[in-house]
Amino acid sequence: xxxxxxxxxxxxxxxxxxxxxxxxxxxxxxxxxxxxxxxxxxxxxxxxxxxxxxxxxxxxxxxxxxxxxxxxxxxxxxxxxxxxxxxxxxxxxxxxxxxxxxxxxxxxxxxx
Length: 112
Prior knowledge:
Residues 14-104 form the DUF427 domain. The chain is mainly β. Helices cover 0% and strands 56% of the residues. The protein is built from no helices and ten strands. A hairpin with a 3-residue loop joins β6 and β7 (65-74).
């Protein structure tokens, strides 16, 4: 298994869906798994949840546990399964509970 490291993400981070800001946080987490690019996890309270709709799709990661996926409604339509969250991760990953990460291929996540 690849090592997963979690750090406070420095600065202010935003997530945009087709230009619309759906989240902004100074409390985000940077999650790095092995040699893969980092992923920013936003606290749920910093996301405009009205843009997210729970998906029927789920997934499971041996290190993070069960993930809930979300569709994002944007000005251009629906982005299927563009966000995910681990509500009850194992103790070693407890920091990401209550956070939401996004599919960087569908949305823009950037430090501002």
